[in-house]
Structures are given as structure tokens and as C-alpha cells.
Design a protein that fits this description.
- This protein is of the alpha/beta class.
- Strands 2-1-3-4-5-6-7-8 form an 8-stranded mixed β-sheet.
Amino acid sequence: MPRLAPENTLASFALALEAGADGIELDVHATRDGIVVVHHDPELASGLVIADAPLTAVLAATDVAVPTLAEVCDLVAGRAELFVEIKGAAIERQVLAVMRTYRGPFALHSFDHALIARVHGIAPQVRLGVLFENLPSDLETLMTSTGARDVWPHVPLVTATLADAVHTADGRVIAWTVNSAEDAVHLARLGVDGLCGDDVRLFPAR
């Protein structure tokens, strides 16, 4: 709930759960010592690059607490599906190591489609997704080549035709970023399966 608390924080995730979210989306990077942390950008507001610093330095470099992925797993504890966007380069094994201990539903997704394909090769049982802000030339081939079953299009790309194609391939459509009630209703009518936004209170009840 980034409209009420800083994004990618335990406080924000707790508010989303209280508001009835059935999914929590978050972004991950890994520290120099291999700890997966939850943060949108590769660097902190202070300029510290997460991948270049140990966890202790990352925690000391910001006033906004940066949670580890393990801490978020403990907080959510199966109450919602976790959607983990892998943003750090080549950190899929570290992310998988954390998520293997999680007892609730989860899926991994990324703009890095080659990374998603690698995850599919390592752990084919894990649900995967591909993010994009430009429509792929061949969506079915993209899903097949990466092993993705979730498709994450930017809101303007969503059409009933796209939704039908993904559903035909036994996938889900999760639109981002949905920050108006009007968009939420429109997308629901088009047949999307999930809405990713900053305030779950805007979304229509199922």
C-alpha cells in the first residue's frame, strides 16, 4: 500500500493484507553477501548500490527499513500469494533458496526474460511470469520459451484479445500499474486475472 506507507516495506505489506489483498507484489535485489532484500531500485536513496554492499551496510544506509525477502515471507505467512519480481542481475538461485522454505503460494516474475527461462530450467515446478511494457511480437512463443504462465502487461497493452490468448495458453494476465477505480473495473471486464497497484482499496470486490 505505497499510498499509505513506503513501498516495499513490512508496514506497507501489512496494510495491504489488512485491506484484503489476495496478492503481494514486491521487488528484490541481493546484497554483496548474498542476502535477498526487498527494494525497488538497485540503489538506495543515499546512493549505496545494494549489490556492492553487505546487508549490514544496506540496513545502516537508510532511514526506511529495508526488509529481507525472508522477513516478508514470515509476515505474509501464506495469507496472500507472493509475487516476487526479480530485479537484481543473476540472483535467481538466491531467490529460489529463500522461496523454497515458504509455505504459501508464490510466483516469480521479471522484465529479464532470459532470467525467467533460467529459473524454469532450474525449478520447472515454480510458477513464473514475464513483465513487459511493449507488446511482444509473439506472446505464445515468449510464454513457451520462458516457461511463464503469468503475463504482466502494462495497463495500456491489455485487450480482450490478449487476455483470451493468455487464457488459451493456460496462463494468467496480471496488469500493472492500476491506480484508478475506473481502470480496475475496465480491466476486470476485459478478463484480467489480477490487478497490481498502489492501493488495493481501489479494486472491485470479487
